[in-house]
Specification:
Layout (H helix, E strand, L loop, with lengths): L2 H8 L6 E8 L2 E6 L2 E5 L25 E3 L10 H10 L4 E5 H4 L10 E4 L4 E4 L2 E7 L16 E7 L2 E5 L9 H6 L5 E5 L5 H5 L8 H11 L3 E5 L11 H11 L4 E2 L7 E5 L1
Parallel strand pairs: 3-4, 4-5, 5-6, 10-11, 11-12, 12-13
Antiparallel strand pairs: 1-2, 1-14, 2-3, 7-8, 8-9, 9-10
Helix pairs in contact: 6-7
Length: about 260
């Protein structure tokens, strides 16, 4: 068994606590209440990766819920989906309704499609979708949002994984309806050069820090800054900005493979 999965299985968080592991880019695993939840697992080996895959798709076992934010390869890893589904045969996949019908790699019965501000329950887990603006707040003709974030509530803790997202009008109001305890936010930013080359951007580290501070979260973890050349950011800049502007909010850089237990 993969040592990260093995370690998470050995941890039994008490009420109002979780264990979290960052796998690089915007990929996270969360253990709480006997459940393992994955956010945007990006497991496919690729020579362009600066952080090697820490878990092979075939070893991605004992996962209960897999939340996928949008249909880019480092978020919905289509090359690894089938193997992930086989390794964790009871896992439920949460995906944007806007892209659900295009995902043929796994059975539709195992997918739950979601849209902005919809809520579903999977066992003891409650999941709320929040529309994401991946530079633009895109929407289909049917009113569906192809980019989502998720607020997952489990074991008395709520976690917001924004997916790829910029701050847009209304995002803060949505988050303040049920302020998440932990926010997992991208900090790699955006610019014209990257956008011209179809590298769609996200919050800057200052915008991510401000969103966390304005929201009133207890803790924020930066992400999406270390995987590909030309789309990097220094997370220490985020940490310095948080320390000066929002010292009341806990912040932490999580190194790939690190498992961190958080108690509230």
């Amino acid at each position: 068994m993969n040592p990260i999965i093995q370690k998470l299985l050995s941890i039994s968080p008490v009420f109002r606590s979780i264990a979290i592991c960052r796998l690089g880019q915007h990929s996270f695993l969360v253990k709480a209440d006997g459940i393992i939840i994955a956010f945007d697992p990006y497991l496919t080996a690729d020579n362009n990766r600066l952080i090697a895959s820490l878990i092979s798709p075939d070893d991605f076992c004992n996962i209960d819920v897999i939340c996928c934010s949008h249909d880019h390869g480092d978020h919905i890893d289509r090359q690894a989906l089938k193997a992930m589904a086989q390794a964790s045969p009871n896992a439920v996949f949460i995906v944007p309704e806007a892209v659900k019908n295009s995902i043929s790699e796994i059975s539709s019965e195992r997918m739950i499609g979601m849209n902005d501000e919809e809520t579903v329950s999977v066992g003891n887990i409650q999941i709320k979708a929040i529309a994401a603006a991946h530079e633009m707040l895109d929407q289909t003709a049917e009113g569906l949002y192809p980019y989502l974030g998720y607020i997952v509530s489990v074991n008395g803790v709520s976690i917001y994984h924004s997916g790829d997202c910029c701050v847009y009008e209304g995002l803060l109001s949505k988050l303040k309806k049920s302020i998440p305890d932990i926010m997992l936010l991208p900090i790699n930013g955006r610019d014209a050069v990257r956008l011209k080359n179809n590298c769609i951007g996200n919050m800057t580290y200052q915008e991510a820090a401000d969103l966390a501070g304005w929201c009133g979260t207890s803790m924020v973890i930066p992400a999406h800054y270390d995987m590909f050349h030309g789309n990097l950011e220094n997370p220490e800049l985020f940490m310095d900005y948080m320390a000066v502007k929002y010292p009341m909010v806990r912040s932490k850089i999580m190194h790939p493979g690190e498992i961190y237990e958080i108690i509230f």
